[in-house]
Write a structure and sequence with these properties.
With 422 residues, the chain is α/β, with parallel strands linked by helices. 40% of the residues lie in helices and 18% in strands. α6 (145-157) crosses α7 (179-195).
Length: 422
C-alpha cells in the first residue's frame, strides 16, 4: 500500500446485529496507532458504544506511532478508513513560520484543513447517500478542521450531527491569532455550532466559555461529557512495587507549562527539612523542551531527588501511573483553567493519590472532588506547604475514585445523547 494512499481496515459484524444497532459515521483525524491523547479518548469512547461505527481517520507518515494504544472491540467498526495526510518538509516549515506570525489564512483553523476537505470528499464517495442520511455523524476536534468536514457533510446530506470538542476553538489561550485570523476562526466556529445538532464539551468550564458568546437558545444544544478511563484495562495491569515513596508525572512540558513551581518547592524542603525527603523518588516521564529541563540546574538540592526518563508508550505510562504512590499534574499558570487533560482521567482511574499544581478551574475541581491536593502554580508558598504535608503523611490513594468517569458510565451517557437524536 502506498504511503499516500488510503487504507481500509474492514471489520464485518454479523449483518443482523449491525442492522439492529444505531449506525454512526465518525470522523476523527486522530486514531490509534497515532500517539496522541485524542487517539486514546476517541477510540475508547467509540468502542464502548452500542452502535455500528464507520470511521474515517488520518494516517500520517510524520506522526509518532504507538502500537500499545488499545483499540477495543473491533466488532464495533464496519470499517476504519485511513486517509493519509502528508506535507513535505518545506511546506511544514513554511506553514509553521506563517502560523507563528499569524499569517496562515489557507490553513484556518489548523494545518489539517486540507486533510478535512479530502475526508469529506472521500466519505461521500465511500457510501451511498441513503446510507449517510441514515447515520448519525460525530466529528472530533482537535483538530478543529474535523468539524469543517462535518459541516460540509451536514449541509450536503442533512444527517444528525454531533460536534465533539476536547478543547475550546476560538477561545483557546494557546491560539496565536491576529485580528484577521481571529475573525476567521470565530466565523468558522460559529458555523459549526450553529449547524450542529448537539455540541459536546469535555468540561463544563469549556462549555460555559465557548457558549457564552452565542445566542441563549444555542446553549440548549451544548452537552457536557467528560473523558473516561477504562477500569478493566487499568485493573489488568500489574505494576512494579517501589522501595521508595514515588511521585510520578506522566506528560509533556512545553511553552508556558513548566515544572518550576514544583522544583522550587522541592528545593525549599530539601534545604529546610531534608529528612522528609528520605526514601523519596520523583520521576518525570514525557517530552521536555530543553530550556525547561535545564531549569533543574538552578535547583541543585531538588536535582538529587528528581529523575527524567523521556517519553514512554501509552501502556507503559499507564503501568507507571498505576505503580506510583502520588501522581503529579502540573499546569501552566493562568487566572483560570478550563482544560480537562486526558491524562488526568487515567490518573483518577488508577485511584492513586494526586497532587495538582494548577490554577482554579477544571483540573482543580476534579482533583479536589477525588480527595487529592491542589495548589496554584503562582503561589509557591502553598505549593511548598502542600508538598510538605504529602511528604510527611505519604498518602497512596484518593478516597474517591470518581466512578462518573468510568468508560461504561460515560459511554452510557453518550448513547443517551445519540438516542435523543432519533
Amino acid at each position: 500500500m502506498g504511503r499516500h494512499r488510503p487504507e481500509r481496515d474492514i471489520f464485518r459484524t454479523d449483518e443482523r446485529d449491525s442492522n439492529m444497532r444505531k449506525r454512526i459515521l465518525a470522523l476523527s483525524y486522530y486514531f490509534p496507532p497515532m500517539a496522541a491523547p485524542r487517539s486514546i479518548q476517541v477510540s475508547r469512547l467509540l468502542s464502548g458504544l452500542d452502535a455500528s461505527v464507520f470511521l474515517v481517520c488520518g494516517k500520517d507518515t510524520i506522526e509518532t506511532i504507538d502500537e500499545t494504544i488499545p483499540v477495543s472491540d473491533p466488532g464495533r467498526y464496519e470499517m476504519v478508513y485511513k486517509i493519509p495526510f502528508h506535507k513535505n518538509k518545506y511546506k511544514r516549515y513554511s506553514d509553521y513560520a506563517s502560523r507563528r506570525m499569524g499569517l496562515s489564512f489557507s490553513d484556518m483553523p489548523d494545518e489539517k484543513r486540507g486533510w478535512a476537505k479530502r475526508a469529506a470528499r472521500e466519505t461521500a464517495s465511500l457510501l451511498p447517500a441513503s446510507d449517510i442520511r441514515a447515520m448519525t455523524l460525530i466529528t472530533f476536534g482537535q483538530p478543529m478542521s474535523d468539524h469543517l468536514a462535518g459541516l460540509e457533510l451536514k449541509k450536503k446530506y442533512g444527517l444528525p450531527w454531533i460536534a465533539h470538542f476536547s478543547d475550546p476553538w476560538f477561545d483557546s489561550p494557546f491560539r496565536n491569532d491576529n485580528y484577521f485570523t481571529g475573525n476567521i476562526n470565530y466565523s468558522l466556529e460559529r458555523e459549526v455550532i450553529k449547524n450542529s445538532d448537539i455540541t459536546i464539551f469535555t468540561s463544563e468550564e469549556t462549555s460555559e466559555l465557548v457558549m457564552s458568546k452565542y445566542p441563549a437558545s444555542w446553549k440548549d444544544k451544548a452537552v457536557y461529557l467528560p473523558h473516561c478511563y477504562d477500569r478493566e484495562l487499568i485493573e489488568s495491569i500489574t505494576p512494579d512495587k517501589n522501595s521508595e515513596y514515588t511521585f510520578r508525572s506522566i506528560g509533556n512540558f512545553y511553552g508556558n507549562r513548566t515544572p518550576e513551581p514544583f522544583y522550587r518547592a522541592v528545593e525549599t524542603i530539601a534545604r529546610s527539612e531534608p529528612g522528609i525527603l528520605n526514601d523519596v523518588r520523583i520521576e518525570f516521564y514525557g517530552y521536555f523542551e530543553k530550556r525547561l529541563k535545564s531549569l533543574l540546574d538552578s535547583y541543585p538540592q531538588a536535582g538529587k531527588h528528581i529523575h527524567y526518563h523521556g517519553t514512554v508508550p501509552y501502556m507503559d505510562g499507564l503501568k507507571l501511573a498505576a505503580g506510583a504512590d502520588c501522581l503529579l499534574a502540573i499546569d501552566a499558570p493562568s487566572e483560570y483553567s478550563i482544560f480537562f487533560p486526558s491524562k488526568l482521567v487515567d490518573y483518577a482511574g488508577t485511584g492513586k493519590y494526586i497532587f495538582a499544581i494548577t490554577p482554579r478551574g477544571t483540573t482543580a475541581n476534579i482533583v479536589n472532588k477525588a480527595g487529592g491536593e491542589t495548589a496554584n502554580p503562582a503561589d509557591i508558598g502553598t505549593v511548598t506547604s502542600v508538598l510538605t504535608d504529602i511528604l510527611k503523611t505519604r498518602p497512596r490513594a484518593v478516597p474517591n475514585r470518581l466512578v462518573e468517569f468510568e468508560k461504561n458510565v460515560v459511554c452510557g451517557k453518550m448513547m443517551d445523547i445519540l438516542n435523543s437524536l432519533s
